[in-house]
Specification:
The chain has a domain of 116 residues: Serine Threonine Protein Phosphatase 5, Tetratricopeptide repeat (Alpha Horseshoe). Helix content is 65%, strand content 0%. The chain starts with 6 loop residues before the first helix and ends in a 14-residue tail after the last helix. The relative contact order is 0.13.
Amino acid sequence: MNSQPWLTIAGIAASILLIDSTPSSASITNVSIAPEKLAATVTNEALAYNQFSELVNNLPRYEQNIACDTSGKNLQLTHFQTWINQGIALQQQQKYHESLVCFDLALSSQPESEQAWYRRGISLSHLKQYSQAAVAYQQAIKINPEEPTSWYNQGNAYKHQSRYEEAIASYQQAIVLKPDFQVAYLQLGNIFAKTKQYDQAINAYQEVTKINPEDHQAWYSQATLLYQLERYDEAVAVYQQTLKFKPEQHQVWYNLGNIQLKLKNYSEAIAAYEAAIKLKPDYDLAWNNHGAALEALEQTQAALESYTRALTVNPNYETALNNCRRLLMLGGGNFILFNTVNPK
């Protein structure tokens, strides 16, 4: 790694007199990315699955100013499916408030329309009115309890209300009806992880990878939970699976480095951190822990350079600052303690 200008180190040295001179050990930042955060970028909530997609694709091309205009019309003569089609067109234009008018008109003439209730739930979900969305999906399920996407979307609505047990039950029913329902398993894993039911979460993520072995998010989420549970050998193997499908994911390399550092495999840790830094050169956490691994191998000068690089990226990074100060004052430490933050 290239060394940074030594102005940063000079500034650190000038501040040494302000700190306690008692010897201390290198601090290591041990953070991994929460699986549920990345999972949120994969699934598309209420629109992830849509049993009426063939209807949307075959709709006529409506004008951009389409609306459910009720003025000057005999509403009783308008077929309920026309209102549903117009509502779907408005959803495609992200006009969710307007679409609700159409679905309500459809339901006024056909209260048992599963499609209208389902679509109403989608609009309400987009408007973040999750309690009402759940009611809409319940009505759709009451009419047709065999439709897995209604159960899935109901699970999403419950999840956003933190009604986790009900969300779990909804996702599980969706899976009963559609055993290869990949995103339902993924969401189920996320809820289990959030509620600290880790073994169930791992099982759910494993089901995802059985359905789709290339789902890197499920591999990553599973590995991160194994890491949290300190099942390090398993975590390493699963992170490596993630890299087969997503080699550019810098968080994976960083987490691998942290595991190797915990296992005192310092050369492997250095290689992993360098892979993370290559992908994200301003990765201050990786620079700091790269320095810690070098320090463990008694490569004090190289460690100091890595700590300095971390500070160049983030001048307020207290852990790297303390590591730099300590090395400049004491000529390096003889052992490393972990200042850990458990992966989320």
